[in-house]
């Protein structure tokens, strides 16, 4: 029996006779009775009603589901179980990753909180001498202690002023010690990494921005230069740790004598004070075998400053380690003029000692050469015996040399970091060396070409 015939038979069983009740006129009692309507013809099998067709489709689906085997049901159930298991595993993995991200966010927040307590990541603390931990030292801002009698390790460069060391929290002191050790370790790691590239032998600094630093912070006159001296000592030790052999700084220009007399007087007093400190405490200088030179016309200095500078040069003349040259009072024009004058004086002395030519002047130029070679000028420069600077660093973002080492900086790499000199730190020095290493091949190529042309 087919599905269609079954549906037709089912429709016949449920079908009722189609009869109508005769209607009468309500308002007329004499109205004729209408004839009864004839019954409707039976519906054929091809014109089955719509509900019957829908029921037939449902019955067909039920028959199809009933025909499915039990194995197919089991197979479909297993597939669904596997998919559910995979989704559960994926959800669990996502939850684990979310927990991991939460832990990383927490760690980063802790690091950010820690970094806010530090002015820089590395380089603001430096170990440069030995001292007894039991000794008490007074710290004034960024003062440097150079006492030769103290033994043991000491952090001598501070970024803040202690008012009362006894009143400090012991936990804070322990934290500061841990952070200091961490900074020293990171600094040594950075220096070791830098050493794989070409390292500069000579770095020159134009210490610009001391006055602006004090002005921006409403500090007293001369306070910016004192802070700058602390930065100088720290930079000197950083360069020593990196293996830089020569350090030159532009401390005082001849043009600076044109400034206000009170400012010049203050600078001269500061120079005398710091030079005398180095004379009284030479343990660090002798430890690193530092040789100190003063380049410039020392006759222009105040008498006490000049005598102290000459004494310091004499006391370190025998050292063979780091060469630290201080340009004061100096400018490059004066240096070149002085070199030419010395060459001329040397020629005249040679003429007088050897009696070259005759007294009547018959020999051309009396036997004295009129030309001056580059090698002769190099020999009479203040920087004689010192290689040309590889890097010239001028702080405060200025891009001019200000008449500093014009003869020696033809192939030097000029760096102009934005911070003022008292703000200059280890990270700025590292960045300058990285930039130098990047352009080193081009600098060497230009130097070789210049040597071939001479």
UniProtKB/TrEMBL annotation:
Source domain of life: Eukaryota
Q: Matching SUPFAM superfamilies, A to Z? A: Undecaprenyl diphosphate synthase
- The residue ranges flagged as biased composition, category Low complexity, are 40-56
Q: Coiled coil located at which positions?
A: 77-111
What GO molecular functions are on record for this protein? transferase activity, transferring alkyl or aryl (other than methyl) groups
Q: Where is this region: Disordered?
A: 1-70
Q: Which Pfam families does the record cross-reference, listed alphabetically?
A: Prenyltransf
Protein family (similarity comment): Belongs to the UPP synthase family.
State the NCBIfam families in the record: uppS
Q: What is this protein called?
A: Dehydrodolichyl diphosphate synthase 6
The organism of origin for this protein: Zea mays
